[in-house]
Design brief:
By secondary structure, this protein is α+β, with helices and mostly antiparallel strands. It is built from two helices and three strands. It has a domain at 25-82. The mean pLDDT is 84.
């Protein structure tokens, strides 16, 4: 991947299973555009086995499937205009389980 790859991955993520994609599906936009096409990579993990992903991002969905992650494909048509994908436009107000730190 030209934009992000092993050459510029922060040390924090060493040892993580990282997915690199060479291209993203441009979802387009209407009105002012405040983000790049890469907002399509913004998805939300519901749990370790389930992700909410923009339905147009078939390369990403295929990569997640290879890792046995189930996907709920949805459309967020105005992600580029809103400057946020599924992860950015959600707020979890109820959570089950204990607090976990992934970046310590």
């Amino acid at each position: 991947a030209e934009r992000v790859g092993p050459h510029n991955l922060p040390d924090l993520f060493a040892g993580w299973d990282v997915i690199y994609l060479d291209e993203v599906v441009d979802i387009g936009f209407s009105g002012p555009c405040t983000t790049s096409k890469w907002i399509g990579m913004n998805f939300m993990m519901v749990n370790q086995d389930l992700a909410i992903v923009d339905a147009t991002q078939t390369p990403l969905i295929r990569e997640l499937a290879k890792r046995k992650v189930d996907v709920i494909p949805l459309r967020l048509r105005h992600a580029r205009t809103l400057a946020g994908g599924f992860h950015c436009v959600t707020l979890d107000v109820r959570r089950r389980g204990g607090l976990e730190t992934y970046c310590a």
